[in-house]
Target: lysozyme
Amino acid sequence: MNCVHWSLLITLCLCFFVNVFSVKISEQCLNCICEASSGCAPSLRCFQVRNKTYCGPYQISYDFWVDAGRPSHSFETCAISKSCSEAAIRAYINKYASDCNNDGVIDCVDFAIIHKIGPQCVNNDWLLVTDYWNAFTETVCYSHKYELLSKFSPKYLTAKNRSNVVSTECMKCLCEASSFCNVNTHCIKGYCGPYLISQNYWIDAGKVGKDFVRCSTNKTCAEELVQNYMRKYYKDCNNDGVVDCDDFAAIHKMGPDCLTSSIYATDYWKHFEYCSIMGTDARRKQQLLTS
Model:
């Protein structure tokens, strides 16, 4: 009898575990993945790429279908059926759900990465330059990623980290110091756009946008990168007891190792100081913002 009771208890615990940790992938998210995969073409059958067969509107492979539990017992029949494909995707996502982009939440963006890459989804740099990913970033699921279901960490978007830490006036001076805020600046020795952002900066700031060059050369997208970067490395670089625009200017140029004084002899810093003095008064307004 004791063995029976223990078996029942273990079964109940396992069921509870599965229910608690299963993820929900919304219909909207599935539609976004479908659009990114094939334009959600309902008549798409099978084609081969590098000796692998992909079928249906979600372009599911045989290995994907096997990992998902072989629904309907026929790979091709299931893959070309939208409803069966979606059952396979739900099973696959539940099996491999993880925070692929390390943003503190498991959501549709992660599901889209897993759908294309599989369980090793953290190594996803190559995906960012694919047609699939470019198509996914055009969907509502990417632009409104934090409004979807399946949030394991809702605390990620708090009022504090949603707000901008760099004021508008301070941002103007960072832009002026970087390139005289020339919005037509493309790339110079690996630094792109009006804020002269590097690829490592873009990665550190969360890889906003479709790709590095496209985001950094777009002033609005670049400013989102700057805000993210400052939130990540927020610190008092000059040890004056306050984190203000001077510190953000140092972080923008030097990164987390902003304590060095070598920046003060650069043209960048001279342009920043000139901007701060000549009417924009970035320091004072930044202090009001952060106080």
Notes: The domain at 168-282 is CATH 1.10.530.10 (Lysozyme). The chain has two domains: 27-149, 168-282. The radius of gyration is 24 Å. Residues 8-21, 146-162, 280-284 have pLDDT under 50 and may be disordered.
